[in-house]
Specification:
By secondary structure, this protein is mostly helical. The radius of gyration is 28 Å and the shape is elongated.
Length: about 650
């Protein structure tokens, strides 16, 4: 008899292949570069992560074409990718303010989708050989050690972020993230991820637990008020996970533990609020829960959301629209309230979708914790750990823009993916249609990542040479980066630094900056910050008529708010300079300008919206300018000048 034809060997699981292990290493390097080089969230810092991400996605496509088995993300995963990823991706792509700010949001959304799928694949195993606890411990300890080194030595330099000198935002004690709240949050979530992982695993005492506790303790040294609420939520969740794992099938103890946790959480929160500002006062409660002055930003975001309630203004449009309420180089970057910013940028439809998906992930993670009480099957310990991190992040997002940071967003997205598959008793392999959908999406994202890398390279290259913010070497770096990229924010900063420098720039330099501004404005039409910068160029060139015509529409009381600090300040300073110059040849027009400026500045005194009203130096400068205006008005009136408003024409 002829020998039987051997059956075709089954395709190997992607995690078991050499290519799959290389893919895991590339994704780990991608996240490592996010945490160390792109932690600020600026689009140009994504050069290195984009290169690594493109390589990982192309390798993933190769594995699918070769026929390797890949796990299915499950119904929850497909809903998240299809509804959530698709909606936010298209809304960012079609944003009216596309070229750079929306590109940054596209980078965030791409990061979230990739990390989500990585988490879904990690949750599909048993979690015993996962590198995630090791990666969390490594990055958490790296952040803590860098933080400690900067505190001990007093250095301002960041080993990983030379671009801080480009932007002039170099700070002391910044850790990996350049922002104490972000560093504290990262230490908290990595610490509690390790603690919850230990509580959910068979071996509850070991290196993971003690490393996590050490990272949590270091988070309290960051001078961030997010450390305590994060710790309060994390300890509560870890205790809940521990009781679920140890006291199995004991429903009475289980119910008592949940009740005790709730009483502990609300009791401690009430005590802290009462000691801080008085829990009986609603305003104090809102202020505490909004992390102090962030209440103004969140109010503004909700007010802007009401003007475009369904689909929002567009990706990162809060950054643009809020420019009208602030002055100077330090414009607000985000609402410091992820839910309010989502409503402003993506509408209440986007906010509702985000909350629905978040609730789905939390429910899936909660199922992983409940499965710990099952004495017959040991659940993947990554599921409860991811649930713990996700709860902390969802709470912290109320008072900080943690999801506009690529590394912190990636951590949350990774945990969302883990919750989708870790709670399942059996994870199925993706079918042919699902495989090709994932391959097509990976190829599209790889092309997008390469475009990111190409776009970001010139500015990334210009930012490699770190220079102290106070040195003369930073401005040429900024000018080179602005000229190479025409990024509106860089061009605006370049104009602000040039017009405020001493000696003042010559006319040739001003014309060159104006050319850059016009080209950048074509890439991001309707950018209010660019309008303010262009008006400064006109003022320094003596083109007051053009500057006044440009600024006047922004002072319309019906536009947003008649108390807008930024535009009224620029406008009144322009009118003061113009009236002082024209006082000798056109005293009537000069008097009319001065009276208009005095009226606006007097109204500003009690009605400024934000920090300008609280800063003593700004108040002092405002009062001095108002006194100078009054003196000019008295001088012109004593000479018999009659107000002439023909300058408005």
């Amino acid at each position: 008899m002829p020998d039987p034809i051997p059956s075709k060997s089954p395709a190997p699981r992607i995690a078991e292949t050499t290519a799959g292990k290389v893919l895991t290493a590339l994704l780990a390097l991608f996240y490592l570069s996010l945490a160390t080089t792109a932690a600020g969230g600026e689009w140009h810092t994504l050069f290195l992560p984009a290169c690594l991400l493109a390589a990982a996605l192309l390798l993933f496509c190769f594995c699918i074409i070769r026929g390797d088995k890949i796990p299915s993300p499950g119904l929850a995963g497909w809903l998240a990718l299809g509804l959530g990823g698709g909606y936010f991706f298209l809304r960012a792509w079609l944003s009216p303010w596309f070229y750079y700010e929306s590109v940054a949001d596209l980078g965030l959304i791409t990061t979230a989708m990739v990390m989500f799928m990585a988490g879904a694949y990690a949750g599909a195993g048993d979690g015993k050989k996962s590198i995630l606890p090791l990666l969390a411990a490594f990055l958490g300890l790296l952040n803590a050690l860098l933080w400690g080194y900067q505190n001990v030595t007093g250095t301002e330099a960041s080993w990983f972020r030379p671009d801080y000198s480009l932007f002039g935002t170099e700070l002391r004690n910044i850790g990996l993230f350049g922002y104490k709240n972000f560093s504290a949050h990262f230490l908290s979530i990595t610490g509690f991820f390790l603690c919850a992982y230990s509580m959910a695993s068979a071996r509850k005492w070991g290196a993971a637990l003690f490393t996590g506790l050490a990272l949590i303790l270091v988070s309290f040294t960051c001078s961030s008020r997010s450390a305590f609420p994060n710790a309060l939520a994390g300890v509560t969740l870890c205790f809940f996970i521990y009781t679920s794992s140890v006291f199995r099938n004991n429903r009475k103890f289980y119910a008592a533990a949940i009740l005790f946790i709730l009483l502990l959480f609300f009791g401690a929160a009430y005590a802290v609020l009462d000691l801080a500002n008085g829990a009986g006062k609603l305003g104090s409660l809102l202020d505490i829960f909004s992390f102090g002055s962030r209440l103004d930003l969140s109010k503004l975001a909700w007010a802007l959301a009401d003007q475009a309630p369904w689909t929002g203004h567009g990706s990162r449009m809060f950054t643009n629209l809020s420019t009208e309420f602030f002055s100077g180089a330090s414009l607000p970057n985000f609402a410091h309230h992820e839910y309010a910013q989502a409503a402003c940028d993506y509408g209440y439809a986007g906010l509702g979708l985000m909350l629905a998906l978040l609730a789905l992930f939390l429910f899936s993670g909660f199922r992983s914790v409940l499965k710990l009480a099952d004495g017959h099957q040991r659940t993947n310990p990554l599921g409860p750990a991811a649930f713990c991190v996700l709860c902390i992040a969802a709470f912290h997002a109320y008072g900080e823009f943690i999801w506009h940071n690529p590394a912190l967003l990636g951590a949350s997205a990774l945990c969302c993916g883990i919750t989708c598959t870790a709670s399942l008793s059996r994870v199925k392999a993706s079918r042919r249609a699902g495989r090709w959908v994932q391959a097509s999406a990976a190829l599209l994202l790889a092309v997008l990542a390469l475009c990111f890398a190409f776009l970001a390279f010139p500015v990334w290259k210009a930012s490699l040479h770190a220079a102290p913010p106070s040195s003369d070497g930073r401005l040429p770096m900024l000018e080179e980066a602005a000229s190479a990229s025409l990024d509106p924010d860089l061009v605006r900063r370049s104009i602000l630094h040039a017009t405020g420098s001493s000696p003042a720039p010559d006319q040739a330099r001003l014309r060159e900056l104006e050319r850059q501004e016009e080209e950048a404005e074509l890439l991001s039409p309707g950018n209010h910050g660019m309008v303010a910068a262009k008006s400064l160029l006109y003022i320094h060139q003596g083109r007051y008529t053009e500057a006044e015509q440009m600024l006047r529409p922004y002072l319309d009381p019906g536009r947003f708010d008649d108390r807008m600090f930024a535009w009224t300040t620029i406008y009144t300073n322009m009118l003061y300079s113009w009236s002082a110059i024209s006082a000798s040849r056109s005293p009537g027009q000069a008097l009319s300008m001065a009276l208009t400026a005095q009226e606006i500045m007097s109204a500003q005194t009690d009605q400024w919206l934000f920090y300008g009203a609280l800063d003593p130096e700004v108040r002092k400068e405002h009062d001095l300018r108002l006194s100078e205006l009054k003196m000019l008005i008295l001088t012109l009136q004593s000479r018999g000048a009659v107000p002439d408003s023909s300058w408005r024409k």
